[in-house]
């Protein structure tokens, strides 16, 4: 309750900027209750005190700004810098090893799902830079995952209103599975919606491969 009172006072004093700077600082790995703040902000939009669309835009901007900053720190400074000065960013060796293990397990997809893994999301930006993940690939995963993370936690307060705290704790516990399920459903919807276009492209590609194979055979025949 003390934390909620503090967050409420921040919103009363600084409005939407609380989300932007709070989430940016969280991804630089300074202590800030980002998920709780977003859920409470969603509740404020439920009461009509804040606009939900503006909240999404501001939270997404803060999240992507924080992730981008950490990516370039990791890219320019490298692993030795993080190992030496990580304690100043609240990074322990255990967190570093945990993130490294998750990267080895899931690869660059972790940049998207890492938002929903406690103790990992704060380090995925740094580690993406450390391993020199191409920025376009990093941005694709980081920004899409960030948008999903932001919308889901803001929606808890917006949709459930006064009951948001109970739903928040449940969602926090199973957020990775919920987000994965939503991502799978979204992928299936996209595949179904564009199934004819995808089928046409696959058919054209298959026909092109057959034509290419025939041309190669004809070119080789004179040498037999």
Quick take:
By secondary structure, the chain is mainly α.
What are the defining features of this structure?
224 residues; mainly alpha
Description of the molecule:
The chain is mainly alpha-helical and 224 residues long. The protein is built from ten helices and no strands. The protein has helices at 2-14, 17-27, 34-46, 52-85, 93-106, 110-113, 121-130, 135-160, 164-193, 195-220. α8 crosses α9 (164-193). It is globular, with a radius of gyration of 22 Å. The termini are far apart. The relative contact order is 0.11.
Q: Can you count the beta strands?
A: 0
The main pleated sheet reads as: none
Q: Distance between the terminal alpha carbons, to the nearest Å?
A: 84 Å
Structural class: mainly alpha
Integer average pLDDT: 79
How many distinct helices?
Answer: 10
What string, H for helix and E for strand, traces the elements in order? HHHHHHHHHH
Binned, the helix content reads over 70%
Radius of gyration, CA atoms, in whole angstroms:
22 Å
The shape, in one word, is globular
Catalogue the unreliable spans.
none
The fraction of residues assigned to DSSP E strands is: under 5%
């Amino acid at each position: 309750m003390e934390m909620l009172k503090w967050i409420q006072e921040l919103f009363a004093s600084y409005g939407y900027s609380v989300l932007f700077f709070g989430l940016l600082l969280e991804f630089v790995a300074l202590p800030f209750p980002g998920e709780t703040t977003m859920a409470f902000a969603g509740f404020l939009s439920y009461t009509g005190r804040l606009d939900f669309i503006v909240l999404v835009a501001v939270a997404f901007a803060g999240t992507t700004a924080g992730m981008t900053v950490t990516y370039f720190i990791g890219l320019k400074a490298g692993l030795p810098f993080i190992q030496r000065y990580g304690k100043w960013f609240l990074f322990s060796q255990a967190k570093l090893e945990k993130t490294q293990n998750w990267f080895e397990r899931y690869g660059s997809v972790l940049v998207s799902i890492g938002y929903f893994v406690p103790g990992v999301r704060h380090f995925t930006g740094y580690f993406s830079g450390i391993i020199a993940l191409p920025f376009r690939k990093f941005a694709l995963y980081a920004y899409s995952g960030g948008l999903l993370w932001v919308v889901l936690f803001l929606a808890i307060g917006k949709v459930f209103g006064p009951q948001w705290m109970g739903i928040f704790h449940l969602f926090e516990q199973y957020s990775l599975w919920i987000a994965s399920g939503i991502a799978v459903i979204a992928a299936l919807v996209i595949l179904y919606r564009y199934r004819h276009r995808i089928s046409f492209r696959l058919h054209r590609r298959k026909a092109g491969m057959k034509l290419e194979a025939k041309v190669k055979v004809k070119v080789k025949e004179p040498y037999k």
